[in-house]
Amino acid sequence: MARKPKGPKQVAAITHDWASRRNIPTMERQSARERVEETHPLEPLIYGRADPLTQEQTRDRDTDLDPQLVWKGTSLRLTQAQIEALKAGKAVELGDAQLVWRGKDQQDWSDLVVRIPPIYVQEKIHPQAIIADLQRRTGQRRQQETQAPDLFADFNGLDPQARSEFYQHDQNWQNRMILGDSLYVMASLAGREDLRGQVQCIYVDPPYGIKFNSNWQVSTRSRDVRDGKRDHITREPEQVWAFRDTWKDGIHSYLTYLRDRFTVMRDLLTDSGSIFVQIGDENMHRVRALMDEVFGEENFVAEIVFTKTSTLGTKLLPMRCDYILWFARNKESVKYRSLFVDKPVGKGTAYHYFQKQDGQAQSISESSNLSDKEIKSGSFFVLGNLLSTGFTKTCYYDFPFDGRNIAQGRYSWKTTKDGMDRLRNANRIWGSGTRPGYIQRFDDFPVKTLDHLWTDVAGAQDRKYVVETTSKVIQRCILMTTDPGDLVLDPTCGSGTTAYVAEQWGRRWITVDTSRVALALARTRLMSARYPWYYLADSAEGRAREQDISGRIQPDTPTHNDTRQGFVYERVPHIMLSTISNNAEIDVIWEDKQPAVEQARRALNQALINHPEPFTIESGGRKGQTIDFTARGEVELPSGET
Fold first, then answer.
1. What element of type H or E holds 295?
2. What is the DSSP letter of 2?
3. pLDDT at 12
4. Under a CB-based contact definition with an 8 Å cutoff, are residues 266 and 187 in contact?
5. Which of the four, 126, 273, 368, 473, has the lowest number of CB atoms within 10 Å?
6. What whole-number distance in Å separates Cα of residue 161 and Cα of residue 181?
7. Which residues pair with 98 in a beta bridge?
8. Exposed (0-12), middle (13-18) or buried (19+): which is 101, by Cβ within 10 Å?
9. Greatest CA separation for the chain
10. Do strands 437-441 and 112-114 pair parallel, antiparallel, or not at all (unpaired)?
């Protein structure tokens, strides 16, 4: 028998109450808005070229080789300082190379001019209202009065008199999917909605070349697109026009397409913002040169390589990776949050030693006979260097260890004599050679900083779109460069992976596509998404959880569920050599416990007197020697003790 519910389930929504956006017209007001545009047209946005040319000027080159890299100028005027430097035999930088293609000279005769059309609202979706409406229709909800949102209520937060005064008032923030050409949509966001310099992260997944099928997917039920098939020809006029106008000159049109959009994207980015461009090997070198021109090569951050599913049908070496070019709006002030991934452990990794719970250490090859219980109670470790690369006078001394004196040679130790004693007493020094090492356990820091090589991000599972990136790739890019509440833009929506990830991690988002199929897939994906539950730092539950994890008393101030305060994050330990060598608590524990150990040792030595069976020493300065318990007299140890 089903358990009777205690009461109706409450539905709440996470909102960005601190953020706002301009109110824009709805489709039923389009005709009225067009009349306003005719009488009061807005001036287009104008962007200066990075390397403009005068009218009729061209770059000196063999145009049959386009696209190609050429020097930015062939006429050079040397300054007196450069002339003197050349006389002295020094190198002088004369200019930079740039990528040129057919039509670029003519484009650079004038600035980039982009019109800024109005964007119309076709549909508003409020999931909280939809769920509440479904609950309201149940028998239980019919008999209860509720404060649940009305499905047809207004969520804009605007005065009724201001609803038709478009682009003049700010309303509540709403994430958006926009159908249209990304160039004009982004220009409209910058020029009409004051989003210039407001976007924290842009993720772009453009066509990898001029052979791309994503423009022709005609159904949400099949991502199969084949050339020459009548059923696979799009019937959306916007896409046909876009393809005709954009790609008529092949690779030259492709480069013009990207440069124009990169220029507007740069305008939208905040000073600490980042742009990620996913690209294949076919045009990666060209896109890198293009981004150097638009964003400045000094703002290049990294080239990320990530693996994908295997390429089938290739005659030569299969390619199993794609690339992400990361540029900053301003590298000096770029926002960056380090990400961590689990370290590998065991055979074939750096952690090829094992220490049992009783302190005994051995190599991983000798650990094959360990039981599961011993492995769970012990720890893998790597042997670190105890010697410093420099010289510190207070860290220069001979150190007694394992029955012998260890001379440091011409280098000093990494810590003082007291620190080395603590490391030894904490059982953190091991090694039978002339140079023992520091035991750095896997559990001391079980993660590593994410680098630019991502081999653990296989292709998207259960893909619905002909080109779809796994969410793990986009998730890392967003989490590295944004905080909760920041704005993320994806001008190449596709299946909506960027919006999906941004929604999961509390980021605001805007996504754009020319295809109704793409937006339909993304809309369905977002509406049916189920996310893990995260604790907001600025919530009562979050503070309680934070106190449990960190042990720090949390403030007793009101909470507001502000996403900008972030989440309650998982913690990992980070124990270093200095953490142990500077820990005076180890001295207290040693002084408390060591007398009992010495007493037990004396009792054991007394009991072994005249024991008939000799003992072979397995480690230390006397390794391999035999102790005869029936013998009498004094023995000098390798350390000089008797």
1. helix 284-295
2. P
3. 67
4. no
5. 368
6. 32
7. 70
8. buried
9. 114
10. unpaired
Cα–Cα separations (whole angstroms), residue 300 to 292, 293, 326, 334: 7, 11, 6, 11
Q: How many helices (H) and strands (E) does the chain have?
A: 17, 25
In sequence order, the 6+-apart residues with CB closer than 8 A to the CB of 591 are: none
3-state secondary structure of 429: strand
Classify residue 506 by burial, with Cβ atoms within 10 Å: 0-12, 13-18, 19+. buried
Average pLDDT in the 472-484 region? 96
R_g of the chain, CA atoms, integer Å: 34
Q: Domain segments of the chain: what residues? A: 8-45+114-174, 175-341+451-527, 385-444+575-642, 533-571
CB 44: neighbour CB atoms within 10 A?
A: 14
- Lowest-pLDDT choice from 60-64, 236-240, 312-316, 385-389: 236-240
Residue 137 makes CB contacts below 8 A (sequence gap 6+) with none
Q: Report DSSP state, residue 208.
A: S
Q: Which residues contact 555 (CB under 8 A, 6 or more apart)?
A: 543
- Tell me if 72 sits within 8 A of 106, measured CB to CB: no
Token pair belonging to 182: 């990304």
Distance CA 471, CA 430 (A): 44
Q: Which residues pair with 276 in a beta bridge?
A: 203, 326
Token pair 């992976």 is found at 497
Cβ(478)–Cβ(487) below 8 Å: no
Give dist(CA 533, CA 511) in Å, integer. 24
Burial of 137 (0-12, 13-18, 19+ CB in 10 A): exposed
The continuous run of DSSP H or E covering 111 comes out as none
Q: What pTM was computed for the model?
A: 0.82
Q: Measured in whole angstroms, how far is the alpha carbon of residue 272 from the centre of its chain?
A: 15
Please, what sign has the CA dihedral across residues 138, 143, 146, 149? positive
145-159, 182-196, 200-214: least confident range: 145-159
Euclidean distance between the first and the last CA atom of the chain, given in angstroms as a whole number: 79
The tokens of 67 are what?
């696209």
CATH class assigned to 175-341+451-527: alpha beta
